[in-house]
């Protein structure tokens, strides 16, 4: 075990925290999760002294399936000042209890502890259903070149009706079913990494020993055994090879990301539309076709804007509207949904052209609207990262200075926001012109917390996934409460997304969330009012 340094002026306080936590390992991180101090049994778990962990990301100490929860846990810690023990798996497969606190005189450092669980409390190798990001990270690690050298594959399986069954279960039963599904999938796909894209769509990363039909049967049999439900239908999805087909590693990973996203949103039909029905190679040819389709829609103006109200929960009066893109008709192989158009623009790297066209429409709508009307417009991080986009956007906004106090810009997280020179220059330029900034989907991605620290966003939208479960999951309720508290302490205004029930509204008011958006308050309409 590494020893603390006597010449470290903070060692006494850190050691007190270590003893208080009775932990195997203590690490101190900055709010972004970078390790700044480490003490404890690092060699037993990571094969190195604790000092070697400094400057690494704390998330890298955990198993791939656990890493993408780290930003949300840090946000919870930042808001509450303390993190109650959470079960996590280390990179070496060991289950541990993760806790944390913020020391009173070190507000910008997080003290995290990892403690061994009592023997026999949990299975040592319990399988879990991971998410698409963890699957992508694992797939990237497994893909080997030159082509044909390995056997990495991904199987996709859809089980229709499972989502409705899952949503009706209490939280404890839902967690138990999830664990049993993971166990049943790994039984028929030994060594595979099972993942859940939605409540009824699954992906399994494997090395050639899995059959989508067998995975589907295992899922339906487990659901029947656990819930007594009969009649579920599974669609034996696809089984993609991640190597070969004369694709580069980058093309494979990009195509797989598209496949998982499309399958999660629309199942096998969406894969057909994307040219991904039979192999990932079809994606490469599809990208150019989609790029041409999006560019044609922009040239022809074949899209409209719809405006959904964001209300004050105190009296449900309208605070502002969010402008939502609505494609009109189809172009080439591109469908007519917003998600498909945005995904196509991202895949083809033409989000900047799409974002400029949308902003033009929103400015025109503001010019025709009542003077008190305000509108928020979404901009992709892919656009923000381009210096030429920033210059073009600011030049366009300078042509309409009277409208800028009524304009909000939402930075979306469909792609990861990188707070670098180009993005900072644009966001600060917007603020200098009186445009208010909103960070969208906070808590859903790894970049949000770092972005919130670097840029003083006036509004923070809480990811709708947490809001939907706020009355059924204590963990989601705690996360929403912590985010709301963090916003109040940092001067930002929290906005809850996807609010659909009066019960959710009452809970949000109780937790101190001032603004909300969702079908409960109004569906998108054609005009600003």
Description of the structure:
With 529 residues, the chain is α/β, with parallel strands linked by helices. It is 41% helix and 21% strand. The chain has helices spanning 11-21, 42-46, 70-80, 132-142, 162-167, 171-188, 212-227, 249-273, 281-300, 338-347, 351-368, 381-384, 387-397, 421-432, 448-454, 464-468, 474-490, 502-511; strands at residues 25-29, 35-40, 82-89, 95-101, 110-116, 153-160, 193-198, 201-206, 233-241, 303-312, 318-327, 375-379, 407-411, 436-442, 459-462, 493-496, 515-517. The strands form three sheets. Strands 10-11-12-13-14-15-16-17 form an eight-stranded mixed barrel, surrounded by four helices. A five-stranded antiparallel β-sheet has the order 2-1-5-4-3, sandwiched between helices. Helix 15 (448-454) links the parallel strand 14 and strand 15 (459-462). Helix 3 packs across helix 17 (474-490), helix 9 (281-300) crosses helix 10 (338-347) and helix 11 (351-368) runs parallel beside helix 13 (387-397). The longest helix has 25 residues, at 249-273. The protein is globular and about 65 Å long. The termini are far apart.
């Amino acid at each position: 075990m590494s020893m603390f340094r006597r010449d470290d002026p903070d060692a006494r306080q850190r050691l007190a925290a270590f003893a208080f936590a009775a932990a195997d390992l203590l690490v101190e991180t900055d709010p972004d999760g970078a390790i700044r101090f480490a003490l404890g049994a690092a060699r037993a778990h990571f094969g190195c002294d604790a000092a070697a962990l400094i400057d690494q990301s704390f998330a890298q100490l955990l198993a791939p399936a656990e890493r993408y929860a780290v930003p949300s846990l840090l946000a919870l810690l930042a808001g509450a000042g303390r993190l109650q023990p959470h079960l996590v798996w280390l990179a070496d497969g060991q289950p541990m209890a993760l806790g944390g606190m913020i020391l009173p005189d070190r507000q910008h450092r997080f003290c995290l502890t990892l403690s061994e669980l009592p023997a026999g409390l949990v299975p040592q190798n319990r399988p879990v259903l991971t998410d698409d990001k963890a699957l992508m990270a694992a797939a990237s690690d497994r893909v080997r070149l030159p082509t044909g050298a390995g056997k990495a594959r991904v199987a996709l399986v859809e089980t229709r009706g499972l989502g409705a069954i899952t949503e009706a279960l209490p939280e404890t039963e839902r967690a138990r079913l999830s664990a049993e599904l993971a166990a049943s999938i790994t039984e028929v796909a030994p060594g595979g990494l099972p993942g859940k894209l939605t409540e009824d769509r699954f992906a399994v990363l494997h090395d050639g020993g899995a059959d989508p039909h067998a995975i589907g049967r295992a899922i339906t049999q487990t659901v029947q055994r656990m819930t007594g439900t009969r009649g579920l239908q599974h669609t034996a999805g696809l089984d993609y090879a991640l190597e070969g087909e004369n694709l580069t590693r980058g093309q494979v990973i990009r195509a797989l990301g598209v496949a998982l996203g499309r399958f999660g949103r629309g199942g096998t039909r969406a894969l057909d539309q994307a040219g991904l029905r039979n192999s990932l190679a079809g994606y490469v040819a599809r990208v150019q076709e989609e790029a041409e389709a999006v560019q044609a829609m922009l040239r022809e103006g074949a899209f409209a804007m719809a405006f959904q109200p964001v209300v004050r929960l105190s009296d449900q009066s309208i605070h502002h509207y969010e402008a939502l893109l609505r494609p009109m008709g189809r172009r080439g192989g591109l469908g007519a949904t917003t998600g498909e158009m945005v995904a196509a623009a991202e895949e083809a790297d033409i989000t900047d052209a799409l974002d400029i066209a949308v902003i033009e429409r929103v400015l025109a709508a503001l010019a025709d609207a009542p003077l008190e009307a305000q509108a928020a417009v979404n901009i992709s991080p892919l656009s923000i990262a381009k210096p030429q986009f920033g210059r073009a956007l600011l030049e366009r906004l300078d042509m309409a200075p009277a409208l800028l106090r009524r304009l909000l810009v939402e930075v979306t997280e469909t792609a990861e926001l990188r707070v670098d020179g180009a993005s900072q220059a644009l966001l600060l330029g917007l603020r200098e012109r009186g445009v208010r900034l909103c960070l969208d989907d906070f808590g859903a991605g790894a970049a949000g917390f770092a972005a919130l620290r670097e840029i003083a966003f006036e509004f923070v939208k809480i990811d709708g996934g947490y809001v939907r479960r706020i009355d059924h999951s204590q963990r989601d309720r705690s996360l929403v409460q912590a985010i709301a508290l963090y916003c109040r302490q940092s001067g930002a205004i929290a906005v809850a997304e996807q609010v659909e029930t009066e019960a959710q509204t009452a809970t949000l008011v109780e937790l101190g969330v001032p603004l909300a958006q969702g079908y409960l308050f109004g569906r998108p309409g054609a005009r600003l009012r």
